Each structure stands twice: as structure tokens, then as C-alpha cells.
């Protein structure tokens, strides 16, 4: 497996994990009282936005070749770092509830 394939596979694996956790949190939000539900929904929306940006970056990387792919790594790393930060914030919030 090439470095590129490994990198993209790692991104896919992380997205799968985040998507599974988001689905659990969405179920938890659906059961929450009105005030808590609004907070869950707000955090989930932020998380979904970051996830969608990360997924878009991954999709672009899959079709990039050569030098373009190398340049995209920086952008992908930044998008994934933002997603990871949003995920950690949401995770700590949902674990506390």
C-alpha cells in the first residue's frame, strides 16, 4: 500500500469512527429535554460542518495526483485538526450529560 493509500485509509477510518459517534449523539439528543436538545443540536451541527469539510478534503485528495496531492496534505491536516478539535469538544459535552 502506498503512503497516499495509507493516508486516505486512515482518514476514512477516522471518519467512520466520528460518524458512528455522531449517530449515537444524535440519538441521545433526540431523547433530551427541550433546552438540552437545543444545545445538543447546536453542537452536532458544528460537528457535522467540520466533518463535511474533512470529507470534502479527503475526496479531493483521492483524485489528486503527484505534486497536487502533496500540497493537499497540508490542507487536509488542517481540516482534520479542526474536526478533531470540534469532535473533542462535542465528545466531552456528550459524555458529561
User: What's the story with the biggest beta sheet?
Assistant: none
Mean pLDDT, to the nearest integer, reads 83
- CA gyration radius, whole angstroms: 15 Å
What letter string, H or E per element, gives the SSE order? HHH
Helix content: over 70%
Please tally the helical runs, counting DSSP H or I stretches of 4 or more residues: 3
Oligomer: single chain
Number of strands: 0
Beta content: under 5%
Tally the structural domains.
1
The separation of the N and C termini measures: 41 Å
The outline comes out as: elongated
Which structural class do the helices and strands define?
A: mainly alpha
**What are the low-pLDDT stretches, counting only 5+ consecutive residues below 50?**
none
What can you see in these coordinates?
The chain has 97 residues and is mainly alpha-helical. The protein has one domain (3-96). 93% of the residues lie in helices and 0% in strands. The chain is built from 3 helices and no strands. It starts with a helix and ends with a helix. The model has no long low-confidence stretch (mean pLDDT 83).
